[in-house]
Design goal:
Elements: H1 2-13, E1 21-26, H2 36-56, E2 60-63, H3 76-87, E3 94-96, H4 116-127, E4 142-143, H5 144-147, E5 158-162, E6 165-169, H6 174-177, H7 191-216, E7 220-224, H8 231-235, H9 244-257, E8 261-265, E9 272-274, E10 283-287, E11 296-301, E12 309-314
Parallel strand pairs: 1-2, 2-3, 6-7, 7-8, 8-10
Antiparallel strand pairs: 1-11, 4-5, 5-6, 9-10, 11-12
Keywords: Signal
Protein name: Calcineurin-like phosphoesterase
Signal peptide: 1-18
Length: 326
Amino acid sequence: MRLVLLPLLLLLATPAAAEPVRFAAFGDMPYCNRDPEACRGEVARVEALTGAINAARPDFSVFLGDTKAGGEACSDAIILDRTARWFARIRGPLVYTPGDNEWTDCWQPRAGGFDPVERLRLLRARFFSAPVSLGAAPMRLQRQSDLDPQHRLYVENARWERGGVTFLTLHVPGSDNNRPRDGAPGTPPGAAQEYPARNAANLAWLREGFAVATAAGSRAVVVAMQADLYYRDRCGRGTVAGHVDTRDALAAAARDFGKPVLLLHGDSHFWLRDHPAPGVPNLTRVMVPGDGDTRAVVVTLEPEAAEPYRFELIGPADRIALPGCG
């Protein structure tokens, strides 16, 4: 009898394999730079993508900023109301981190000449008013504003855990992270005060996120933002001074963590996967499509596997963007 029971007892004593975490990431859409009829078509494409995401049934989804094109007006109707309508079509939890087109670039005449800081204030009030995600089935989030008295303003910086993996968003948009350009033409209004304060908050939130992950024994860390931190490395041009601090801090944190770290971002509008930081092989970067390429990336994450990530692109596939430096 003992010989019969021994294999069963050994089986029960063996730790169960950790379940994979499965989520969707997308951004930079809808981009409506043309006539109203074409714009309706772009919004319809995004709505079709939300249907594909719902059909895939991820644990949650992350939208990586840019809810509109740079040439569209930063009106309440576009950056607030239109966005809220299609965000609500996502049946599961949806986490949002802002991009440059919905606030930092709004001072430009083509975007309506708005005050960027005022637009950001509206985004925070509309989409980040409570410590929960968006989507039809919100999930609880930890926010920097609730945990760090020195950075109460940054309600958009969030952290959550799923399946032993730590996730965090950093509010790092394109357009050089709204960094002032030393008095040169093209400096966004209010940037001299806004950028350094938010940059310091982001760096503090990144450090805390990895500290929490290390203390908890997290299997992996996923960091989500809008900006393409490595644009100049790929294209040999572009102003990236506002992103250097984030790049350096992320590489150092990933190196020290030692387990899989995944960076998710948009901004450059095509599918890309690589290892962007020399000497940090555990840091993987994924850039999601965008603009006319209206697809999402479904990520299956199994940190202990020989290949921790599986990627599937879903949604309308009739406008696949090729890598470039546009």
